[in-house]
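Weekly modeling sync, notes
Attendees: S.R. (lead), two postdocs, one rotation student

Agenda item 3: backlog of single-chain predictions. S.R. asked that every request posted to the team notebook include the full sequence so nobody has to chase files. The rotation student volunteered to paste the first one in as an example of the format we agreed on. Action items at the bottom.

Example entry:
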Amino acid sequence: MTRIIAITNQKGGVGKTTTAINLAASLAATQRRVLLVDLDPQGNATMGSGIDKRALDATVYQVLLGEKTVADVRQRAQAGYDVLPANRELAGAEVELIEIEQRETRLKDALAAVTADYDFILIDCPPALNLLTVNGLTAAQAVMIPMQCEYYALEGLSDLVGTIKRVRAHLNPALEIEGLLRTMYDPRNTLAQQVSAQLLQHFGDKVYRTVIPRNVRLAEAPSHGLPALEFDRSSKGAQAYLALAGEMLNRAST
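Predicted structure, as returned to the notebook:
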């Protein structure tokens, strides 16, 4: 059974794309078949997977408009997973989708043709609540929320949970929260410890046990077009994402 997970947070800079790339690589390393969908016009998940977004003939943009299929456009990353790539063209999809019928389900309908090819489909959503994010949430079965343990994060989280409830009510009744992932974590920071404790208090076992630390190698890897697992497998960041993949697989089997 394919698991489709939207990785999203309306706040930028929380490690969302880093999580999408490194989780895709880690799941692929466990011999799972993985598709990473880049729904962000910045195309960072595309570039971070070693695919030149400027050289693409077709992207997820053409897929959303119905001009191409996922099978036409997907590309293979060196790390062993497939990528449905994006570039700046995707920013125009917002305006064009407004005119199209069933605009919220364009991604869901397109993915239906390739779902059987994969064990996991990870969707890297843009850091905003727009029609692209709504497409991601409508296509997904579950949402993974990467977040930093800082003061404003909790406020943003309540907004996001509200959004998920609205999508569930109107577009995707099966949508659930897969888990909350603490990213860029520094255990020496008292505030981080306090916010982490609050998350566990409010969300319990929805908070992954795995914590992603602040890690230089994680930050350096995208400039080489590689997940941390390929760039420096022994780094704390790469090991943390391998642990996250293991935790997810254990949850799925129980």
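Discussion: group reviewed the output briefly. The radius of gyration is 17 Å.
Action items: rotation student to repeat for the remaining queue; S.R. to check formatting next week.
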